[in-house]
Write a structure and sequence with these properties.
By secondary structure, this protein is an alpha/beta fold. The protein is 38% helix and 23% strand. The chain has 9 helices and 9 strands. Helix 2 packs across helix 4, helix 2 runs parallel beside helix 5 and helix 4 packs across helix 5. The longest helix has 14 residues. The chain starts with a strand and ends in an 8-residue tail after the last helix.
Length: 217
Amino acid sequence: MFDWTQRSRQDNSDGYHMWKDKIKFRWVIFDNEPITNLEEHIIARKGIGRKFQIPSVFKELTVKDNLYVALNSDLGFFKNIFKFFNKKDKEKIDEIAEFVGLKDDLKKTAQFLSHGQTQWLEIALVVLKEPKLILMDEPTAGMTNYETSQTAELFNKLKKTQTLIVVEHDMGFVKEISDIISVMHQGKLLSEGTASEIEKDEKVKEAYLGHKGITNA
C-alpha cells in the first residue's frame, strides 16, 4: 500500500507552528499492479481469493456440485452451457475434497454439513481458483475445538503453496498457523513479529494478552 500525503502548517496560540500530514490518495498494489477501486470480480481474476467470516456456499447443491461450480473458470455463457464433466475435473475435485477433509462427503447436500465442514467447503471453493493470495476473515468463528485444530492443520498445508492473510481473534489458532503476526489496535499497527516476539511485547500485553501469553489469551 502506498500513500501520497499533503503537509500543512498549523499555528498554535503561542506562536509556534506544527506540520500535519494528511493522506490525500491511497493506492493498493498487488503483484506490481494497482488494484485500488477495482471491482471485486476483477480483483479475483488478478489472483486474490477472499473468504469471509460467514460462509457462502450453494446450500441446495452437493459438495461435489459446489466444487464443480468453482472449478469452472470459463467466463463465456455458451462455454459454460456446453462444458461437460470430464476425468480431469473429477480428479481435481477428489484432490481438493481430500485436501480439506470432505472426500467422504462429496454426495452430501451442503446444507447438512456441520459449521466447520461448511467453512472447509468454502475454503476449497477459493483454493480451486488457484489464487496467489488468500484473505481470510475469522475462519474459525463458531468452530468446535476439534474443527479449529483441523483447520490449523489445513492452513499449515495451504500456506506451502499460497500466501495467506488471516484476520483472527483466536490467539491459540493464530500461534499455530502464523509466521508473522500483525497486531492492530484502534485502527493502527501496534506490533508485528513472530509469535514469541509478540508474547514478549509490553504494548501487546497491556492491550490484549495480559500475562497469560498468546495460547491462553
